[in-house]
Amino acid sequence: MPEPPFESEGAVAGTGTGAGTAMGGAMGFATAEAQTLDKGPPAADGAGPGGGAQTAGRPRSLWSDAWRDLRRNPVFIVSALIIVFLVVISVWPSVIASGNPLKCDLAKAQQGSGPGHPFGYDGQGCDVYTRTVYGARTSVSVGFCATLGVALLGSVLGALAGFFGGLWDSFLSRIADVFFAIPVVLGGLVLLSVVTSNSVWPVIGFIVLLGWPQISRIARGAVITAKQNDYVQAARALGASNTRILLRHIAPNAVAPVIVVATIALGTYIALEATLSYLGVGLKPPSVSWGIDISAASPYIRNAPHALLWPSGALAVTVLAFIMLGDAVRDALDPKLR
């Protein structure tokens, strides 16, 4: 009786065929995947080469996301409109006020509103409306210049302390602690009382002198956090200098908290200038300032409350606008709130 044929070759052949088929399918799948990855993601409908869909697919930066959020924030829109209006009347006050803020008529002292004089007159017979409009120039200029000086000085010193550390960091930190211990109003009374200049620069210099430690600490913390990132270590491994690392890699990623704090502090500096002028150690007559007008109108608050309310209201709205703007910018730049 003949034995059945040995089927090992057929089995082996069958197995090899199946394996070859599976391997061929896997290789075909890998090839298809490679071709797909090489071509990139499929284009959106109606998007050709160089179309808008490719631009929309790019990753957005922190600043573009922040600007998109700010445009949708009503707090930012309202505060920005107020600030733009204040800047316009600071640069061109004659656009809405044609009078002379230094021209006074004692015969009209403490009178109420009338035609052409909607805010009335103060105790010296000066037009309150004109002085309120022209007072914005002094307050806004002091706020912007002081904030710019504080931001530059504090950012540079804080960035150097946070980047290099060691003895330089300890030295600047102790110096900042000394300035933090000085009461602002008391320091202004002591330092500005010996200044005889009637310009805004002594007030700006005093604010910069006592305001830089706050920005310095913010910048120091931001730089310490940023320099620990991998891209900074990679740049250092590639031989980048300390200047390049600090300016090109760390500063753009550490400037956001400085901007937020400086924006909020701007309103505070405007209020500080008005406080020092009210106390008689800031700006002095014949300068036009909201603090000077509030100080001059205080004795007549019962007989002429309008002379006090209008400059006080302008000061309050200005400070509130900058604080609201700072809060909106902080919410937009803080990734934890997204």
3D structure, described in words:
- With 338 residues, this protein is mainly α.
- It has helices at 8-39, 52-56, 62-71, 74-91, 128-164, 166-180, 184-192, 201-226, 230-237, 242-279, 290-297, 306-333.
- Helix 9 (230-237) crosses helix 10.
- The radius of gyration is 33 Å and the shape is elongated.
- Residues 1-56 have low confidence and may be disordered.
From the structure above, extract its key features.
single chain; 338 residues; mainly alpha; 12 helices; 0% strand; disordered N terminus
Quaternary organization? single chain
| Class per helix and strand makeup | mainly alpha
Mean pLDDT: 82
What is the count of DSSP helices, taking H or I runs of 4+ residues?
12
- The total strand number stands at 0
Please indicate the percent range of residues in DSSP E strands (runs of 2 or more).
under 5%
Coarse shape? elongated
Q: Point out poorly predicted stretches.
A: 1-56
Rg, Cα atoms, Å: 33 Å
Largest sheet: none
Question: Distance between the terminal alpha carbons, to the nearest Å?
Answer: 85 Å
> What fraction, in percent, of the residue positions are helical?
55-70%
How do the helices and strands follow one another from N- to C-terminus?
A: HHHHHHHHHHHH
Short description:
This protein has 338 residues and is mostly helical.
